[in-house]
Amino acid sequence: MPYLLNSICTISGVFYKYAKRHGDSSILTKREMKRLILEDLLKIYHGFLLFQNPRDRKTVELTFQMLDTNGDGLVDFNEYLLLILKVAEACYSHLKPS
Amino acid sequence: MPYLLNSICTISGVFYKYAKRHGDSSILTKREMKRLILEDLLKIYHGFLLFQNPRDRKTVELTFQMLDTNGDGLVDFNEYLLLILKVAEACYSHLKPS
């Protein structure tokens, strides 16, 4: 599989890995989002020093609120992609000569 | 590097690979976008059968128009990410049980 497509499918696959746990694979519950943050996003936070202490409850809560743009207590795939965009922009700003 | 971060940085890196060619790495000219489509996106189009003949001029033109949302004849990083979102959604719809 072409590496660009492989990267994009990896991003979709991470959402699916957590969303399918409670049956409805189109949304992440807070609990599933917390696991995604702790298991996958923390390493990214470390890389970009986005938070003082990525492990504490406030970080998880803040991330969840940031993503749950319609306030329904769930994170759907498009809301998840907002976070991916933010990280992609941070990645890109590191690549681009200042 | 964590695989999710690696995937996101790969996506940013593909934009940078083409955008830096003419000096200003924050935008893609039509020529650079055409090369990105022909060298990287065609394989994705094949995978998702998005176009009858991904190689013809119309496909490149259509893709460029779709991405150049502000009509300035250039594609910036955020406009590029719109395409990535579309492919991610297509990927996800293949993952999710119908």
From TrEMBL, chains A, B:
The molecular function GO annotations come to: calcium ion binding; transition metal ion binding
Question: Which InterPro entries does the record cross-reference, listed alphabetically?
Answer: EF-hand-dom_pair, EF_Hand_1_Ca_BS, EF_hand_dom, S-100_dom, S100_Ca-bd_sub
Task: Write down the Pfam families for this protein, in alphabetical order.
Answer: S_100
- Record keywords, A-Z: Calcium, Metal-binding
The chain positions of domain EF-hand read 55-90
The record's annotation in SUPFAM superfamilies points to: EF-hand (SSF47473)
Q: Which Gene3D superfamilies match?
A: EF-hand
Task: Please state what the protein is called.
Answer: EF-hand domain-containing protein
Organism per entry: Anolis carolinensis
